[in-house]
Amino acid sequence: MTSTSPADGAGPDHVDVLVVGAGLSGIGVAQHLQRRRPHSTYAIVESRDRLGGTWDLFRYPGVRSDSDMHTLGYRLRPWKDARAIADGPAILAYVQDTAREEGIDRHIRFGVRVVRAEFSTADARWSVDLHHGATGETSTMTCGFLFSCSGYYDYDQGFTPDFAGVADFGGTVVHPQQWPAELDTTGKKVVVIGSGATAVTLVPALAESAEHVTMLQRSPTYVVSLPRTDKVAERARRWLPARAAHTVVFWKNVAKTSAIYALSRTRPDLMRKVFRKGVLSELPEGYDVDTHFNPRYDPWDQRLCVVPNGDLFRAISDGRASVVTDHVDTFTPTGIRLRSGTELVADVVVTATGLNLLAFGGMSFVVDGEEVDVRRSMAYRSMMLTGLPNFAFALGYTNASWTLKVDITADYICRLLDHMDAAHTPVAVPQRDASVGEEPFLDFAAGYVQRSVSAFPHQGDTAPWKVSMSYPRDLVALRRASVTEGMSFPATATVGAR
After folding, report:
1. Does the keyword Amino-acid biosynthesis apply (predicted)?
2. How far is CA 405 from CA 26, 35, 87, 228, in A?
């Protein structure tokens, strides 16, 4: 995919690879493009005014990673901070520093949203329609390859159920995705509705200054306490060269996470007991663990919630926070009445009730004049789609650090682009075998997934069409896999037009 010149029709708004999204994934993909394919041109378009994606968007108290940073950090720029579980500002600074130090920030166009992308097989080129948020104007860029790093949820709004009586409530209701900078919960009674990663992060953070914080949940979630700092990492850095220390800690954490997930799937009763015992050790004797921290579903049917140094359990033990397992009946002028008849008095209610999913940032696709419905497409190696030539997307793991999959996805796509250059085949599109069966794209029981999974493509029931959630398996498979397997390389009218 060699860069084109103005003489063959490519203006200043043509690049070899256009990356959509300047978050953790987009910056990571740009790293690989710069190092693996320095002869190619690329640009990143970002709908917001700052880079960082999730880590710039979420500003609620206590926001942090729920994966260890030694695997969430970039392989090409390892995380060096002592904290294994880091707060949002530290992660944002890490992404920003990576972009600045490697010159990636010079390739980003901010305030630009991709609304439509049209591919011409004859020209081997995408024409991408852009909306400029600050002016309302539109423009077009062209590229040879389109790489979506926009995540899978809607950045504009989170999910909030239609609670009865909200209009009658005299206090403040806020969703964590739109946390107001001016909101002060000091000395106030706060109810956090939800039991997922956001809720278990918010509760101990708010409890530091609020009068009291109540986590109101319909049903429990598996909550696991992990050290905020990694002792093995500290020792490794003392005794080993930096690269060797990172390798040791990285693979230690990958092995640990993989083992926990594997045991959760094969020995769920055993792991349920292990997680329950861990919670019992963190809470006062006699606490009703089975009501509030013993889920009905098996471990890893939904993502585990991590609390660093048991901060949630400490807040509960100290009486600064409590957990109520019940259903909302209605809001009242002074709080929330539960289905049991109990009323929770509140000054502030936080609806940590989940996300709205959005496939590929909501952009629409056209190929050779025909609209493409991505819901009819099938994922190839968890990174490309049938029916969309020269298109890839970054999808991280739901059972491990997101960046692990982004790194090996970027590696694979660089290999594919190298092959396309060497073979003079400027178009590549996955070609589905008719015998492959269909399954939901995200095989995950979380409510936010189940609400919206029908708007996403399918996955297959066998490799390379099945979405894999195993980093060790993917690492071996994708590095060894032929980039031509399951791939079609259609003839074009203009070879080398990119």
Report:
1. no
2. 13, 18, 22, 23
